[in-house]
Write a structure and sequence with these properties.
CATH class of the largest domain: Alpha Beta
Distance between the termini: 38 Å
Number of helices: 20
Radius of gyration: 26 Å
Strand content: 15-25%
Oligomer: single chain
CATH topology of the largest domain: TIM Barrel
Number of strands: 27
Low-confidence stretches: none
CATH architecture of the largest domain: Alpha-Beta Barrel
Bound molecules: beta-D-glucopyranose
Mean pLDDT: 96
Length: about 725
């Protein structure tokens, strides 16, 4: 409440005094509207419930007209005229779809991260939306988990930087502005650690892992001023997050200082019954409210259960009022009392939309990771006359949207086929899907393979459908679905016989375990889901118009059995030794990933040298500079990304092998050389001691810098921390 203007504080206090219990519970309720042909329908309810004050907030409402009408009913026809929060999952764009968060993370560019959020906020706000259920900040080291695609990947540090950028982007500098929307950091906390990567499953991790890995992005979001947080569906060691007072009131509110609104996940309050911790809606509502959840999303438990809970003395009026005040404060901070129609008042100009699509193309291009490029198979030669575009993702415009597409129509995306035809107007693009994404029909393979005989190069578009990652999309076999491997093998064989290159492109929301493809394709790209400009973005890279610069934000395993595989693992007392039997390794698979965190090639060839740190000895409060020389030894211009890791040589708690602390980028012409400087505030090296208290120990710290987390690729220098 500290952030409220005095007149707003008075306004909401007065409102609260005038509210009936039903009106209060309405403010603590968010119901789903689904847009139908004739207009919005509120699932199981009517607009009369807005009029009566029983519903104070909505989600899933699309279209400025519909939003305005619902807002009008709330403001002009309900007794107290309290405006609605209108929320939507604007995760990676609203009408203009950007790559999903995991793909966008591959840019390692906080400016771009903030910019796409800003543009998504503008577009959503123009549709009357005032809240997005984003950013999703769940660190994931679990490619089986479909929601990995929605988050920042495996690094808590990256999660922190992304959280800060996204909150800034969505909320802007002035939350009352007509193009700013409330951000909801989700899903608090450790959802990414679901057992065996299985969606909605239990989470059971150490307190250290919780604090070291999963909480930092949320801490960063809170510091950046995020106004709302959503607890995860999952339980943490048996306590569902929706009822976890220790996490919500304790860690989030008391320790991190979060003062905003806690909004439950979809139906999560009622699901406390299914979790087995509540007998009915009364108990479920009691547990959630006591834990500090302010808004019940769609379950109706607060509306139905809290009156009885009050009567039985399970909750108090003061507890309800506390939550109502928080919701009203958020509405005030959004400027909704001053002008409930500010968002959605002005349609966006065609120029703004065109500019946004340009941004989508730029970000789409930069999100794609070039994983392998044998003998510089890419970029494609300019004089190609015939290219075979094969695979079920080659002409699949709608799939390019990825897991959350809000208001984007399926045909508003550019397919690879369309993008290739536009980029290579003088070449013939021969196209065949060969197989469906997930079907069992192999009859199209032969005809697809025949295209190789007429082509000078093959672009093989494989991977997942958009709905195969995201929520409720865990996979036990995260490889190519359906008969795609059969198609790929047949194409690789025919292309090899004809000595033409096969450029394999993976569309996916997670690392796909395809070592066989990585070994045999001439080049392999992780395109993820590049968004609305997918085809143009990919063609920009394939033709060499732009040099690839994306880096994988998650370690790419070779086999499911290696999961979880991430760069921050501790070495143990018998570290991996491929030649020694009694070391931490598999007898039937290498420990090495298929591609390490940070891996990604460019069309330049970069060499790093002369890593140095200055000063070489410093106090914990100091910031040191880490310098490294970068030279482009290749024949094309390119952008190199350099990661700065540290390794503590000795610590009271066994240190992770690598900890990421910074990244930087540099673009160089062929033959050019420059020095990249990264700043390292030593306070960042603080770690949790045996008592879980943060401390920065004196001693030697190795600073490692390089193009990925592959130890062999890193340069090392030592720094003395003198406490
Ligand atoms: C998801 C959330 C989302 C909510 C509202 C839930 O199923 O877990 O991430 O924000 O639905 O659509």
């Amino acid at each position: 409440m500290r952030t409220l203007k005095p007149q707003d504080a008075r306004r909401i206090e007065t409102l609260l005094e005038r509210m009936t219990l039903t009106e209060k519970l309405g403010q603590l309720t968010m119901m789903s509207a689904s847009h139908s042909v004739t207009g919005p329908v509120i699932t199981g309810h009517s607009t009369g419930d807005i009029r009566s004050g029983r519903i104070g907030n909505l989600l899933n409402l699309i279209g400025a007209g519909a939003a305005r009408e619902m807002q009008r009913i709330a403001v002009e026809e309900s007794r107290l005229g309290v405006p609605l929060l209108i929320g939507l999952d604007v995760i990676h764009g609203h009408r203009t779809i950007f790559p999903p968060p995991l793909a966008e993370t591959a840019l390692f560019d906080p400016v771009a991260w903030a910019l796409t959020a800003r543009e998504a906020a503008r577009e959503a706000a123009a549709d009357g939306i005032n809240m997005t259920f984003a950013p999703m900040l769940d660190v994931s080291r679990e490619p089986r988990w479909g929601r990995t695609v929605e988050g920042p990947g495996e690094s808590p540090w990256v999660g922190r930087v992304l959280a800060e950028a996204k909150v800034r982007g969505f909320q802007g500098t002035d939350l009352t502005a007509g193009d700013s929307i409330a951000a909801v950091a989700k899903h608090f906390c450790a959802y990414g650690a679901v057992t065996a990567g299985r969606e909605y499953a239990s989470v059971d991790i150490s307190e250290r892992t919780l604090l070291e890995v999963h909480m930092p992005p949320f801490a960063a979001a809170v510091s950046a001023g995020v106004v709302a947080v959503m607890p995860a569906f999952t339980d943490l060691a048996g306590i569902p997050m929706t009822a976890h007072a220790g996490m919500l009131r304790g860690r989030l509110r008391r320790e991190l200082g979060f003062e905003g609104v806690l909004i439950s996940d979809y139906n999560a309050v009622a699901e406390l019954i299914q979790h087995g911790v509540a007998a009915d809606l009364i108990e479920a509502a009691t547990l959630a409210l006591r834990a500090g959840v302010d808004i019940d999303m769609v379950s109706g438990a607060y509306l139905e259960g809290l009156p009885a809970a009050l009567e039985r003395g399970l909750v108090s009026h003061a507890q309800i009022d506390e939550s109502v005040l928080r919701v009203l404060a958020l509405k005030a901070r959004l400027g909704l009392f001053e002008d409930p129609y500010r968002r959605g008042a002005t349609p966006e100009s065609a120029a703004a939309l065109a500019e946004r699509r340009r941004l989508a193309r730029d970000v789409g291009t930069r999100s794609i990771v070039l994983l392998t490029n044998r003998d510089d198979a890419l970029p494609l030669a300019g004089a190609l006359r015939r290219v075979a575009l094969i695979g079920p993702l080659g002409d699949a415009a709608a799939e390019m949207r990825g897991p959350w597409w809000c208001a984007a129509p399926p045909d508003a995306q550019v397919s690879v086929l369309a993008g290739m035809r536009a980029a290579l107007p003088h070449a013939e693009i021969l196209h065949a899907s060969g197989v469906d994404i997930a079907g069992a029909d192999e009859r199209g393979i032969a005809a697809a393979v025949q295209l190789c005989d007429r082509a000078e190069a093959v672009v093989l578009c494989l991977g997942e459908a958009a709905t195969m990652s995201g929520e409720a999309a865990s996979r036990a076999h995260p490889g190519l679905p359906g008969r795609q491997r059969q198609l790929a093998e047949a194409v690789l064989q025919r292309a090899a016989a004809r000595a033409i290159p096969v450029i394999a492109v993976l569309f996916c929301g997670r690392p796909l375990m395809v070592p066989w493809l990585a070994e045999r394709a001439s080049a392999l790209l992780a395109a993820w889901f590049p968004g609305c400009e997918a085809g143009h973005a990919l063609a920009d890279l394939l033709t060499g118009r732009i040099s690839p610069s994306g880096r994988t934000p998650i370690t790419w395993p070779r086999a499911v059995g290696q999961i979880p595989l991430y760069f921050g693992q501790r070495s143990g007392g018998r570290p991996t030794d491929p030649s020694g039997p009694f070391s931490s390794r598999y007898i039937d698979e290498s420990n090495a990933p298929l591609f390490p965190f940070g891996h990604g090639l460019t069309y330049g060839h970069f060499a790093l040298s002369r890593l140095r740190v200055t000063p070489e000895s410093a106090a914990p409060s100091a910031t040191v500079s880490v310098l490294v020389d970068v030279e482009n030894q290749g024949r094309r211009r390119g952008e190199e990304t350099v990661f700065l890791f540290t390794r503590r040589l000795k610590s009271r708690v066994a240190p992770p092998t690598l900890e990421l602390h910074a990244f930087g980028k540099i673009t160089l012409d062929p033959g050019a050389r420059a020095t990249l400087t990264l700043r390292l505030p030593l306070a960042q090296l603080s770690s949790l001691g045996p008592d879980l208290e943060p401390a920065l120990e004196s001693g030697t710290v190795e600073i490692l810098a390089g193009p990925s987390a592959d130890l062999a690729s890193l340069l090392t220098v030592r720094l003395q921390v003198v406490a």
